[in-house]
Amino acid sequence: MDILAATEYLARSSTLTSVGWIGYIIIGAIAGWIAGKIVKGSGSGILMNIVIGVAGALIGGFLLSFILNTAGGGWWFTLFTAVLGSVILLWLVGLVRKT
After folding, report:
1. How many domains does the chain have?
2. Cα 88 from Cα 31, distance rounded (Å)
3. Which span out of 4-8, 22-26, 68-72 was modeled with the highest average pLDDT?
4. Where primarily located (predicted)?
5. Which residues, 6+ apart, have CB-to-CB distance to 66 below 8 Å?
6. Which domain holds residue 89?
7. Cβ pair 27, 76 in contact under 8 A
8. What pLDDT is recorded for position 92?
9. In sequence order, what are the residues at sequence separation of 6 or more whose Cβ sits closer than 8 angstroms to the Cβ of residue 63?
10. CB-based contacts of 96: which residues, under 8 Å, 6+ apart?
11. How would residue 7 be classed by pLDDT, with cut points 50, 70 and 90?
């Protein structure tokens, strides 16, 4: 993969969808809470859920951008992406904590 293709993937994954910043915060809170339930069985508090969810959305958006155009998604697709990325993030954090 050349540098231009990598830049294009990164640009697609970080492009704002039609959700907007307030939507990202709301979706981040919901995604962080859902991921907390999936991975460890409990939430982490509203502020930490937002952080986990927004970081998860970036991770999920980056990973899915290799196979899909993630900038075209709406609320539901963004929520799915954020939950997927948040689960991956919490799983990785769990692996690091165990060692």
Report:
1. 1
2. 12
3. 22-26
4. membrane
5. 9
6. 1-97
7. no
8. 86
9. 13, 84, 85, 88
10. none
11. low
DSSP string, the chain: --HHHHHHHHHHHHS--TTHHHHHHHHHHHHHHHHHHHHTSS---HHHHHHHHHHHHHHHHHHHTTTS-GGG--HHHHHHHHHHHHHHHHHHHHHHHH-
pLDDT tens digits, one per residue of 26-79 = 888 888 889 888 887 655 677 888 888 888 888 887 888 788 766 666 788 888
**Residue pointed to by tokens 């709406």:** 74
Q: Directed axis angle between helix 20-39 and helix 75-98, to 10°?
A: 50
d(CA 68, CA 12): 9
- For 30-55, b/e burial (b = at least 16 CB within 10 A) is bbbbbbbeebeeebbeeeebbbbbbb
